[in-house]
């Protein structure tokens, strides 16, 4: 019995070391480097305590990015989860025409690489791109603008790209869960005369509340940490700092401004924010049992 | 070797303290490109002053041509803004402000920014300029949609053959009272040679190599055969007879028709360059006044 247990532990060792080196190591280095005055990765640096945090919290650029990220989270996560849930319900329980084809179409957006998505939206949103051409064609010239270079529209564009690429994926997640968990119950309720809206929110959502909580938490973390790539490819945080998010600030400070100490201090802030947000979301959206 | 190099090169390799850091080799010219055919079509001369530029822009627009193409949203717009903004600044003042900021505090810098805003509001720049990038600028010029652009000699390869005869290189027009008496252009260096610590052990071989490369004949070979402009002044007598006419024009004729403005890339700290570019993008937008422009630029320097 004992020998078998030791054998099992031995087999787990390679994975454990991999995890240690590539996950725990970098995570620990975020905290360590945030206390150093590192400029680039190979430059000499010294311990400076919490000075980087002092610089971060007194920097207008940080607070601008904080505000942008806050807005992004508050808009994208709820809208994405609600729309994804509704779309998932419709695609899997709403019997749409050509259900199979529709499900594939909506899922495709999540199969595209970030750079492909960026190229598509870049072409759509360029000053002479498709969106402006359509607006001008139907006489709405006043609305045509440089979407990626206008302070008022740069961040909303980033949010729209996130929504466009994520809703289909969430719909599939929710739809699959809906059919496996509550498919029969929903059918029964429909037979009893329940309208789709009641079925969706009073029955399906109620049964899936815990799952929705997990997905919302994941979406929160994805939006918080992964928006940097979209920003990098479309606006680079501009014009000015109007579309700069915290995750992009981390990249910019590290690789454009050679200020890795500051960058990792923001990384610590983001880590704590992510942790707190994930816990709060799960508390709110917990399984009813 | 260093003395010989300094005599020949246009831009020295020395640090502000006078120590040699490296040897620039590949160079570029960064003039304003004028499409003479479109100017003829509009019935207006190539402008040399900013007043003439404004009039030319109006005439070009009336003829259905976009005047000045530039990528307002990226580095190409940043260079042009800084080129215009330094119109009234002495080279030393320009270097100081590029390095340390202080745009709003300098009267001469504010005059330059006022000039930029005036040109922008007069419609000199291509429509939607704040949303364009360098690739759109080059496309606009190369397709004959725009009559002017500010681009480097690296764009020579992209000029359509049928258009080559119409391209004239010159400088950006200057206002009256400007620090510069001729239209301004940029020039700079790209790739070059640095000596590593290991390399210092073979310094004699390196000396031979550098002297060979910097000889007039070899430098001319780079121009003739590789179409690469070097950091050295090329002796026109050594240029091949069937050289690409645009390359010949940009190496032999351009330098005497322009004055060279202070190149921002040499003075703007590398760590704030990207942020500065994002702020200059703001300046190309409609309705952004001079105070907002100088505040945006100063904000990058921690101002």
Give an overview of the whole structure:
The complex is a heterodimer of chains A (289) and B (303). Chain A is mainly α and 289 residues long. Helices cover 76% and strands 0% of the residues of chain A. Chain A has helices spanning 2-33, 51-57, 60-93, 99-108, 114-125, 130-137, 151-191, 196-234, 246-256, 260-284. Chain A is built from ten helices and no strands. Chain A is globular, with a radius of gyration of 23 Å. The mean pLDDT of chain A is 89. In chain A, α4 (99-108) packs antiparallel against α7, α5 packs across α8 (196-234) and α8 runs parallel beside α9 (246-256). Chain B is an alpha/beta fold and 303 residues long. Chain B has twelve helices and nine strands. Chain B has helices at 2-8, 36-42, 50-62, 75-85, 91-100, 107-121, 134-142, 203-213, 216-226, 245-257, 273-283, 290-300; strands at 23-24, 27-30, 32-35, 66-69, 146-150, 167-170, 184-189, 192-193, 259-260. In chain B, the strands form three sheets. Chain B has a four-stranded mixed beta sheet with strand order 4-5-3-6. In chain B, strands 2-7-9 form a three-stranded mixed beta sheet, with helices on one face. Chain B has a two-stranded antiparallel sheet with strand order 1-8. In chain B, α2 (36-42) crosses α3 and α4 (75-85) crosses α11. The relative contact order of chain B is 0.19. Chains A and B meet through loops of A and α11 of B.
Layout of SSEs?
The complex is a heterodimer of chains A (289) and B (303).
Chain A: H1 2-33, H2 51-57, H3 60-93, H4 99-108, H5 114-125, H6 130-137, H7 151-191, H8 196-234, H9 246-256, H10 260-284
Chain B: H1 2-8, E1 23-24, E2 27-30, E3 32-35, H2 36-42, H3 50-62, E4 66-69, H4 75-85, H5 91-100, H6 107-121, H7 134-142, E5 146-150, E6 167-170, E7 184-189, E8 192-193, H8 203-213, H9 216-226, H10 245-257, E9 259-260, H11 273-283, H12 290-300
Parallel strand pairs in B: 4-5, 7-9
Antiparallel strand pairs in B: 1-8, 2-7, 3-5, 3-6
Helix pairs in contact in B: 2-3, 4-11, 6-12, 11-12
């Amino acid at each position: 019995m004992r020998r078998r247990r030791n054998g099992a532990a031995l087999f787990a060792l390679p994975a454990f070391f991999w995890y240690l080196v590539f996950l725990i190591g970098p995570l620990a280095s975020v905290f360590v480097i945030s206390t150093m005055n590192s400029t680039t990765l190979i430059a000499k640096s010294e311990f400076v305590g919490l000075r980087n945090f002092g610089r971060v919290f007194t920097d207008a650029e940080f607070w601008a990015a904080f505000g942008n990220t806050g807005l992004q989270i508050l808009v994208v996560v709820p809208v994405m989860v609600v729309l994804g849930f509704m779309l998932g319900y419709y695609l899997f329980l709403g019997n749409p025409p050509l259900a199979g084809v529709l499900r594939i179409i909506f899922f495709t957006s999540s199969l595209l690489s970030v750079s492909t998505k960026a190229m598509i939206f870049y072409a759509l949103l360029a000053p002479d791109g498709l969106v402006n051409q359509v607006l001008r064609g139907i006489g709405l010239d006043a609305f045509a603008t440089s979407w990626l270079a206008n302070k008022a529209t740069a961040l909303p564009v980033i949010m729209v790209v996130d929504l466009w690429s994520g809703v289909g994926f969430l719909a599939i997640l929710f739809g699959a869960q809906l059919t496996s968990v509550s498919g029969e119950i929903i059918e029964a309720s429909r037979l009893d005369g329940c309208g789709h809206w009641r079925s969706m929110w009073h029955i399906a959502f109620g049964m899936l509340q815990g799952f929705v909580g997990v997905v919302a938490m994941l979406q929160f973390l994805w939006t918080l940490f992964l928006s940097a790539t979209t920003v990098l490819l479309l606006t680079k945080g501009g014009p000015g700092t109007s579309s700069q998010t915290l995750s992009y600030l981390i990249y910019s400070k590290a690789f454009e401004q050679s200020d890795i100490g500051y960058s990792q201090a923001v990384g610590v802030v983001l880590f704590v924010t992510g942790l707190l947000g994930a816990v709060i979301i799960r508390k709110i959206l917990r399984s009813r049992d | 070797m260093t003395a010989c190099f300094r005599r020949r090169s246009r831009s020295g390799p020395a640090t502000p303290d006078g120590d040699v850091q490296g040897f620039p080799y590949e160079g570029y010219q960064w003039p304003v490109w004028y499409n003479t055919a479109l100017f003829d079509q509009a019935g207006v001369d190539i402008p040399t002053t900013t007043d003439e530029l404004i009039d030319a822009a109006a005439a070009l627009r009336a003829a259905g041509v976009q005047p000045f193409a530039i990528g307002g949203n990226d580095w190409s717009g940043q260079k042009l803004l800084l080129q215009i903004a330094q119109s009234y600044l002495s080279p030393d003042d320009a270097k100081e402000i590029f390095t340390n900021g202080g745009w709003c505090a300098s009267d001469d810098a504010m005059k330059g920014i006022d000039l930029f805003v005036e040109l922008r509001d007069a419609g000199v720049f291509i429509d939607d300029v704040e949303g364009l990038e360098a690739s759109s600028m080059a496309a606009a010029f190369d397709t004959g949609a725009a009559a002017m652009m500010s681009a480097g000699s690296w764009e020579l390869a992209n000029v359509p053959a049928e258009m080559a005869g119409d391209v004239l290189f010159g400088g950006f027009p200057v206002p009256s009272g400007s620090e510069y008496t001729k239209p301004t252009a940029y020039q700079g260096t790209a790739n070059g040679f640095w000596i590593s610590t290991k390399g210092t052990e073979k310094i004699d071989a390196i000396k031979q190599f550098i002297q060979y490369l910097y000889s007039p004949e070899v430098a001319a070979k780079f121009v003739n055969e590789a179409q690469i402009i070097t950091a050295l002044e090329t002796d026109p007598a050594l240029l091949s007879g069937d050289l690409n006419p645009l390359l010949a024009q940009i190496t032999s004729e351009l330098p005497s028709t322009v004055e060279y403005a202070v190149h921002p890339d040499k003075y703007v700290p590398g760590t704030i360059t990207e942020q500065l570019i994002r702020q200059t993008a703001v300046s190309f937008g409609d309705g952004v006044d001079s105070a907002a422009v100088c505040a945006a630029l100063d904000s990058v320097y921690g101002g």
